[in-house]
Structures are given as C-alpha cells and as structure tokens.
Amino acid sequence: MCSVAHITSKKRVHHHGRRDNNNNRRSETSQFDGVETKEQKTRQIDNSWFIHQSSSGVKLAGDCVETFNNLKLGRKFQAILYKINDGSTEIVVDKTLAPGSSFDTIIAELPEKDCRYAIIDFAYEDEGANKNKIIFVAWCPDVAPIKKKMLYTSSKDSIRKSLVGIQLEIQGTDASEVSRDVFIDKVNKI
What we know:
It comes from Cavenderia fasciculata. By secondary structure, the protein is of the alpha/beta class.
C-alpha cells in the first residue's frame, strides 16, 4: 500500500499509511528504498515553485553576512549600507562607515531619493552607562520610485533574517523617522 497525503483545509490527512514497529506513520518512497514516487517528485516541484514565487527573487550576496559579522563581533564598522544591485538580483554591500562615525554622518549617507538597508551600531547613554544596540533600518523615502520601494519592501525579510543579532528595526520614509530622538525612543522601549 502506498501512503497518499492530501492537503485539505490546511490539514494534512493520511490515507492507507504504513506504520513502523512503534506504530508511527512512515513516509513512503516506493517499493524500492531511496526511489521517490512520481507523486512525491511532482509535490516537490510544486512546493519549490511556491517558495520561489512567494519572494522577490532577490538574493543576498556572499559578503553581506561576513561584513555584518565584522560589525557585530569585531566592531570594525559603525554602520553598513546595503543596496539592491542594478540588475535587481542581489542585495550587496554599498558602503561601510568606520568606527566612531557620528550618527549624523551615518544618516547623511542615506540617499534622498533612493532606498537602502542600513545596519547601525547605535551608541547611546542609559542611566549613566554607555550602551550599544545593533539596529536594522529599512530606508524607503516617499520620493523613491514606486517599483524600487516595492522591491525593497518585498526583499527586506531575506536580509533581515540572514543577519542574526539585530536587536531593533526602524523603518524610515523621511528624515524625521530616522532622527536620533526616534532611535533613543525605540531603544528605551526594549
């Protein structure tokens, strides 16, 4: 007997499944071990199509995570700016700012009419103690082209999830949303 899985109403229902010695359901491949049935191959193709269609298709360049880890672990940078390349296929490192760069210098690097992602090692004082938080900024100004804003918004999760250790996220559409006061307010809430 073959195990056939049907998906109905977001529930997985098994029919005619085999059970192992512990009375647990086994996944069926075919009569021959290690060989997939035609149904399973079709299901894999269908699932991979869904995964590719659910994202923007923009991938993360290889050095993006390494550069982030240099900021996070090595404190080699104060900030990193990322952009989507001209072919709209990859998120790449646009610029790095040296340790000790002022907050105003970092914010001034955000383009007035274009989108960017930024990672900022934000230094602030809390109850007399110097502290730092690694903050992700999704910068999509109102005056940026609509298609670019849509691309950056739909690609944000791919970079956000790949950079492990981000403590806070700020989305900015104009200068008032990325002011030092906004950053201070956000870090004091966590």
